[in-house]
Amino acid sequence: MKIIIANKSHASYAEIICQTIEESAKVRGTGIARRTPEYIINKMEKGNAVIALDGEKFAGFCYIETWSHDKYVANSGLIVHPDFRNQGLAKDIKNVIFEHSRKKYPEAKIFGITTGLAVMKINYELGYQPVTFSELTDDEAFWKGCQTCKNYDVLTRTEHKMCLCTGMLYDPEKKKNTKKVEKPKSKFNDKAFQRLKHIKQTLFYKKEKVEKE
């Protein structure tokens, strides 16, 4: 298995990447923004993506998006092909794209929004912290990317302040300051995030039901 920075020579994998992302979104029933093959190829050509290959077989993918004039960076579209899941590959891909993002955009804040506990845990171990949506980019282009998510109406109802996703942020400036004083690393509390997700689902779906009645 190799995880490398993708380039235009990997364009032939764009179609299966898009199919895998869309199928995963259907299974999870939550938001993974759909992308076109052309969009994926563009990321590859700019060196803003990593791909995992088992020989010539596609295994996983993730790409970089930049917002607010490169002040914010998102590692998006993290996906692992069903044949290679439950092997720790998602974590390995995330590590590679995270380090690539830090080298290419050293001053940028790296963020993400997700409903997946596995991704939250990986982010947390990399140094991300849960934040409110107000601490993320206010670039409208980013939030438009959520339009293909089934929960987009929740996001619009709350004026981009809250959704079923959890926002997480890695701030390189804060990391510089906290390095001077080492603190015991707290453990990721998946039960707490599960409760948060359940509260959000109950809150928004209950409100939706009331509005329909």
From TrEMBL:
The keyword Oxidoreductase does not apply. Pfam families: Acetyltransf_1. InterPro entries: Acyl_CoA_acyltransferase, GNAT_dom. The keyword Transferase applies. Residues 1-149 form the N-acetyltransferase domain. Keywords: Acyltransferase, Transferase. One of its GO terms (molecular function) is acyltransferase activity, transferring groups other than amino-acyl groups. Its EC number is 2.3.1.-. It comes from the Bacteria. It is an enzyme of class 2 (transferase). This is GNAT family N-acetyltransferase.
